[in-house]
Structures are given as C-alpha cells and as structure tokens.
Amino acid sequence: MIKRRQTRRIYVGGVSIGDGAPVRVQSMTKTDTRNIKATIRQIKQLELAGCEIVRVAVPDITAAKVLGEIKKRIKIPMIADIHFNYKLALEAIKQGVDGLRINPGNIGAKWKVREVITAAKDRKIPIRIGVNAGSLPKDLIEKYRHPTHEAMVEAAERHIEILEELDFHDIKVSLKASDVMKTVEAYRLFSSKHDYPLHIGITETGPVPEGVVKSSIGIGLLLLEGIGDTIRVSLTDSPVVEVNVAYEILRVTGFREKGVEIISCPTCGRCEVNIKKMVKQVKNALRNVKEPIKVAVMGCSVNGPGEAKEADFGIAGGKGQGIVFVKGKILKTVKETELVNALIEEIRK
C-alpha cells in the first residue's frame, strides 16, 4: 500500500479532502455557464459518471449571478473558477458556491483581497490557488529565465503568503503545466515544503489518446509517490471522458475502485471471434454498474481462463462456441452468439 503524504484536511461542501480522505475526482464543465440548462445537464452527466466536485467558469457578472440557480439543481459541490475580478468572487460566494479557484495576488488592492477572504471565511469556503506555467509573473520568468518548476512553486507561495497574513488556511493548491515532468517536479518540490492539500493534473494535454497518455503518466507518477488529494484529467473531449480516465488512473495505481474493469486480449492469429465487438457490448451492458468487479473478454478458449484467472467473471471465444468462467473455473460452454448474454446473466446473478 502506497503511503500518501500527510496534508491538511479541508472540505468542499460535504466532500473531505486531504488528511487521508480518498483521492477525489473532479472535472470542469465545458458549457457556457450562462446557459443554465446546458450547464446543469452536463453536471448531471458528470454526477452519473462519479464526479465528486465540479468547477464552472465565471467569466462575467451574468455568469456569477446564475450560480445559485445551478447549485439548487445539482448534487455535487461546485467551485467557481474566477480570474482577477474580486466582484465576481463576492457574487459567487453570495450565490452559495462551495469553493473558489482564484489567485489572491491577481485580484488587485489589498482591500479587495480582504473583502473576498472575509466573505470566504464567513461561509467556510476553501480557496484553490491555481498556478499555471503559462501565466507566471514576469519577474519570476526573469529570475528563472524560463517557467521552471521552481518558479511555479514560488508563485504559489506568494499567493499563500497573502492568505496566511489574513489568517486564512482553507487552501488547496495546484501547479500545472502541459509539460509532464515540469509539472511532476513542481508538485514534488511543493509537497516537500508544505502540507496544503494538492489538486493534481497535467493541463492542456490535448485530445484522446495523446491527452490520456500524458495525464496517466503525470498523475500516475505523482500518486505512486503519495502526492495528490484531488485530480482532474484535462482533455479536449467530454468531461465525462475526463472522469472515466481519472477513475482508471486511480484504479491502476490502487487508490480507488469503482465500476467494471475489463480485461481483454489484444487478439492474435489464434483469435476466431470479434473481440472488439464483444468488449463494446460488455461495456455497454455494464456501464451503470458501480460495484468494483473485474471482467475478462478473451479470444482464445485454450488460454483465456488461465490468463484471466484473477477476473471475477469472464468469457473466452472460439470458433462457433466459447466458455463462461468465474475466477478461472469454467462454468459452461455456449454458442458464440450467446457468449456475451451468458456472461451478463452470470454477473447479474
């Protein structure tokens, strides 16, 4: 079992973060927040996928003023993503959001920062400091010559200092870059110096599959070192896909188990059934299963049960017929056309 770095406990709504709480999965809506119906619809899709915290963009006061209406109709905590404008932060707090993503050093005058922090304190709303390698202060770029991981950490520390001076400590931090190793090194350095909970991810990773690979390597590396309290997979794709990939990363690294894990062979010259089609059918049939189960779909009835003996349930196809097995033990032989249905029937029992 991987030992996680000890961090402080904070709460986003009723969701605990840090100090041994499960690594939480979050995502961000890709709708125009001002479109209330579309935003709620997407958040409900995320809820079904298992998303535990959702973030929404707040580009202007109109978007800020609809947050309360959205909040009333969703079940998971909502974070308002705000840049620069303290009035948007105050309105978001007034609307009842569960958290803010805002960098205090970018708000402006100290009195503006104090107003936001006072309001956040009163409502017990945490703040995420989000440092991005692509938008570091000019003096730090000059100091380090490049947007290095050291520059990212120093930028985060400047924001933290502002909050700590106002006696505010409900803080979560992220340090993201599109470069995997720069991101990993930033989190490593920060976690060696501070105990604030960390939201981890690789930013601007691109589409599938490129973004999945970058996110899996970067987030996986950090998790395996015990670093990370919440994660977001950032893809040029549906946020539901982001959540699904996040849970797969957590499953593979041993931090969370949720839903169906499918083991399937890559196929070879011995394969005499359409494995790709069968896997798709199994995934569709079991897409709403929340319990952690392992299901094998194999293309060779000779080696299938042995190679997948750790699976809870499985099938292995041959020409015209195949076998259904449980924990490596063969239950029965059925026609090839009945394999998938026989597997689903055994699982539902």
SSE diagram, text form:
Blueprint: E1 10-12, E2 15-17, E3 24-28, H1 36-49, E4 53-57, H2 61-65, H3 67-72, E5 78-81, H4 86-94, E6 99-101, H5 110-123, E7 127-132, H6 138-144, H7 149-165, E8 171-176, H8 180-193, E9 199-200, H9 210-224, E10 230-231, H10 239-252, E11 260-264, H11 275-285, E12 293-298, H12 304-307, E13 313-317, E14 321-326, E15 329-335, H13 339-348
Parallel strand pairs: 3-4, 3-10, 4-5, 5-6, 6-7, 7-8, 9-10, 11-12, 12-13
Antiparallel strand pairs: 1-2, 13-14, 14-15
Account of the protein in words:
- The chain contains 13 helices and 15 strands.
- The protein has 349 residues and is of the alpha/beta class.
- It has an eight-stranded parallel beta sheet with strand order 8-7-6-5-4-3-10-9. Strands 11-12-13-14-15 form a five-stranded mixed beta sheet, covered by helices on one side.
- Helix 11 (275-285) links the parallel strand 11 (260-264) and strand 12.
- It is elongated, with a radius of gyration of 23 Å.
- The two termini are 32 Å apart.
- The mean pLDDT is 93.
